[in-house]
C-alpha cells in the first residue's frame, strides 16, 4: 500500500495557501508537569472551526475541471462536512453532505449555511458508506466522493499540521492528537517522522470508542458497533473503524494510541475553556486528557504539542462542560 510522501505533504501545503490557515502554537501552563513546556495548536481557528478544512480542501483543490463540474459528495458527523462545503463554495461547486441524525445540530446548521445540501440518515439502521453508494449509483453524472479520511489527498492535507508544528517548534519532542478515522494522526505522524524521526506521536481516543487502539494493538483493522462508539461525548471520533490506508500510516509512523475516560475528557475540556480561554469541542480535549492521565507512561518530553482539532461545540454542551 502506497503511503504519502514528503512531496505529497509539501504539495498539499502549497495548494492550501489561501484556503486553510497556519494556526499558531500557544504556550499553555501546566505547573503539575514541572519543566515540560506544553503548547496548544488550536485548529479551532480555521475558517470552519476545525482541521478538516485541510484534507477536504486539498482533495477538492486537486480535482480536474471536469470533476469540479460534477460537484462533490461527502459523509460526516460535522467537521468534514463543513470542510467540504466551505471548499466547494470557495470554488463555486455543488456539495452534497450525508450526515447522521445524531450529529450536533450546530454542525448540521453550519454545513447548510455554507450552501451544501444535507441528507440525514439514521446510523443505527445503516452505514453512511451505503447511503453514499446508493446516491452515486442513482446519479446520471455522479459527484466526486470526498471521504473524511480514506484518501491520500485527505491524509496529506491533514498532515500539513505536522509541517507547521516543526516549522514553528523545531525542538518538539512529543505530539498528541485525537484519532477517529486516522487521517489526521496518520498524515501528521508521517510529516513529523519524515522530517524528524525522533519525535514521538501519540493518538488519543475515548475508552468508549477505542477501535483505533484495538486495531493498533491487534495489528489489523477492528471495527466497533455504532451503538458503542456513539456513547462518547467526543462526536468527532465516533468513527467505527480506521481504513486500511490510514491504518498503514498509523502502523508505519505513530508510536502509540492511548485512551481516556469520559470524566477525564470532560475535565480537560473544562480546563481548556477556562484556562486557555479557547472554545473547544469535546474531541479537541482528548490530547490534554491523555497528557494528564498518562504522563508517567508517555515518552519523556521537554516540548510537547497538543493538537486541538476543533471548536464547533454545541452551545448546550459548552454550558454543561462549564458547569462541571
Overview of this protein structure:
With 324 residues, this protein is of the alpha/beta class. It has helices at 6-16, 52-61, 65-70, 79-90, 105-113, 128-137, 152-168, 183-195, 211-218, 226-229, 244-253, 262-276, 286-294, 315-323; strands spanning 26-28, 37-42, 72-75, 95-100, 117-121, 144-145, 174-178, 200-206, 256-260, 303-308. The strands form two sheets. Strands 1-2-10-7-8-9 form a six-stranded mixed sheet. A four-stranded parallel sheet has the order 5-4-3-6, with helices on both faces. Helix 4 runs parallel beside helix 5 and helix 8 (183-195) packs parallel to helix 11 (244-253). The model has no long low-confidence stretch (mean pLDDT 95).
SSE order, one letter for each helix or strand: HEEHHEHEHEHEHEHEHHHEHHEH
Strand content: 15-25%
Strand segment count: 10
Return the structural class.
Answer: alpha/beta
Distance between the termini: 45 Å
List segments where confidence is low: pLDDT < 50 over at least 5 consecutive residues: none
Count every helix, treating DSSP H or I runs of 4 or more residues as helices.
Answer: 14
Main β-sheet, in a few words?
6 strands, mixed
Mean pLDDT: 95
The general outline is globular
Percent in helix: 40-55%
Tell me the Rg in angstroms.
Answer: 18 Å
**Cross-sheet strand order for the largest sheet:** 1-2-10-7-8-9
Amino acid at each position: 500500500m502506497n503511503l504519502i510522501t514528503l512531496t505529497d505533504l509539501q504539495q498539499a501545503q502549497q495548494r492550501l495557501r489561501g484556503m486553510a490557515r497556519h494556526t499558531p502554537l500557544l504556550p499553555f501552563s501546566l505547573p503539575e508537569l514541572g519543566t515540560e513546556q506544553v503548547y496548544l495548536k488550536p485548529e479551532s481557528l480555521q475558517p470552519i472551526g476545525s482541521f478538516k478544512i485541510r484534507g477536504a480542501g486539498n482533495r477538492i483543490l486537486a480535482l480536474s475541471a471536469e470533476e469540479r463540474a460534477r460537484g462533490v459528495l461527502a459523509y460526516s458527523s460535522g467537521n468534514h462536512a463543513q470542510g467540504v462545503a466551505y471548499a466547494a463554495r470557495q470554488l463555486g461547486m455543488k456539495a452534497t453532505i450525508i450526515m447522521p441524525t445524531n450529529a450536533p445540530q450546530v454542525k448540521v446548521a453550519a454545513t447548510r449555511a455554507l450552501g451544501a445540501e444535507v441528507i440525514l440518515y439514521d446510523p443505527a439502521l445503516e452505514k453512511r458508506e451505503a447511503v453514499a453508494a446508493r446516491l452515486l449509483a442513482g446519479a446520471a453524472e455522479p459527484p466526486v466522493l470526498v471521504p473524511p479520511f480514506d484518501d491520500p489527498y485527505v491524509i496529506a492535507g491533514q498532515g500539513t499540521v505536522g509541517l507547521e508544528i516543526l516549522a514553528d517548534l523545531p525542538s518538539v519532542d512529543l505530539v498528541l492528537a485525537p484519532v477517529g478515522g486516522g487521517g489526521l494522526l496518520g498524515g501528521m505522524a508521517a510529516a513529523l517522522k519524515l522530517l524528524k524521526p525522533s519525535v514521538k506521536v501519540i493518538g488519543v481516543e475515548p475508552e468508549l470508542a477505542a477501535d483505533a487502539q484495538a486495531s493498533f494493538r491487534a495489528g489489523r483493522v477492528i471495527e466497533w458497533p455504532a451503538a458503542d462508539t456513539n456513547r462518547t461525548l467526543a462526536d468527532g471520533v465516533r468513527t467505527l473503524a480506521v481504513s486500511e490506508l490510514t491504518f498503514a500510516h498509523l502502523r508505519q509512523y505513530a508510536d502509540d494510541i492511548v485512551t481516556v475516560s469520559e470524566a477525564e475528557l470532560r475535565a480537560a475540556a473544562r480546563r481548556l475553556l477556562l484556562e486557555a480561554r479557547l472554545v473547544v469541542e469535546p474531541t479537541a480535549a482528548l490530547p490534554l486528557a491523555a497528557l494528564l492521565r498518562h504522563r508517567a507512561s508517555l515518552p519523556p518530553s521537554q516540548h510537547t504539542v497538543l493538537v486541538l482539532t476543533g471548536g464547533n461545540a454545541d452551545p448546550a454542551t459548552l454550558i454543561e462542560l462549564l458547569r462541571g
